[in-house]
Specification:
CATH topology of the largest domain: Tetrahydropterin Synthase, Chain A
Shape: globular
Strand content: 15-25%
CATH class of the largest domain: Alpha Beta
Number of helices: 9
Radius of gyration: 23 Å
Order of helices and strands: HHHEEHHHEEEHHHE
CATH architecture of the largest domain: 2-Layer Sandwich
Number of strands: 6
Length: 258
């Protein structure tokens, strides 16, 4: 029999949620037959994980861990809020965040492969890691909303942790998609331009002033979607960039449960 390739292992893992090592063993035992490998895993008691792997995960929680200028964020997904509130689910989320902070992405992924299949069995739902993020900065602000559904990290080149946390709280509420107006992608702008064109045509705007109007709309769109040019929620009229006193935003990560 030819060696089991990585693509076959990845395919089986995507269908079952079982660890890479267990998937490889099952495929070797099944002579490379994926369906037979699933049966083997079911016989080992991982059947429920295999059945649940395709189900939607619209709930979950965000977990954070912080130490020595470094912040780790983990989004752990599940199917229902009931499971998200389970102490076993939350314990794994906290453990993953700590592992990510201490050992990095590969270590966190290895822990997830080890622990999540058993958690699926115990809680009876499809559970998976939705996102992993590790950032470093001179000054960090970390905010996880009280319901655990939104987590934000803002890293600054200078300033106070209190300022960074206030900006993180702002970002949790206002959901800027970019840090600077110039970071807004051409694709995002072009999509909006098509909408603006139709709106202006319906309004009967003269062709000769359309370009000027479009320039204004693009500027506003970029500024409204960028963290630095949003009005600070706690002080309307003051922009986020006005709070920084020359510091730079070096990291911005926002994870949310949809």
């Amino acid at each position: 029999m030819s060696p089991i390739d990585a693509a076959s292992v990845a395919s089986l893992r995507a269908r079952t949620g079982v660890s890479i090592a267990e998937c490889k063993k099952a495929l070797e035992e099944a002579g490379g037959d994926e369906e037979q490998a699933i049966d083997i895993l079911r016989k080992k008691g991982i059947a429920s994980a295999a059945k649940k792997a395709g189900r939607d995960q619209k709930e979950g929680l965000v977990f954070a861990a912080e130490a020595k200028g470094k912040v780790a964020l983990v989004k752990l997904d599940c199917e229902t809020d009931f499971v998200a509130r389970d102490e076993n689910f939350q314990a794994i989320g906290k453990e993953l965040a700590a592992k990510l902070l201490a050992g990095g992405v590969d270590a966190a992924k290895a822990l997830a492969e080890e622990k999540i299949p058993a958690l699926v069995q115990k809680l009876g739902e499809n559970i998976s890691v939705g996102a992993l993020s590790v950032t470093e900065a001179a000054v960090n602000g970390v905010y996880v909303h009280s319901n655990g559904k939104i987590g934000v990290v803002v890293g600054l080149s200078a300033g106070s942790p209190e300022l960074a946390k206030n900006i993180a709280m702002h970002a949790a509420a206002m959901n800027p998609l970019y840090v600077k107006p110039e970071d807004v992608t051409d694709a995002a702008v072009e999509k909006e331009r098509e909408i603006w064109k139709e709106q202006l045509a319906k309004e009967g705007k003269p062709e000769q002033i359309m370009d000027k109007i479009m320039i204004g709309k693009e500027k506003k769109f970029r500024e409204e979607n960028a963290l630095l040019t949003q009005e600070f929620v706690k002080e309307p009229g003051k922009l986020i960039k006005d709070l920084l006193s020359g510091a730079d935003v070096v990291n911005y990560v926002r994870l949310s449960v949809s």
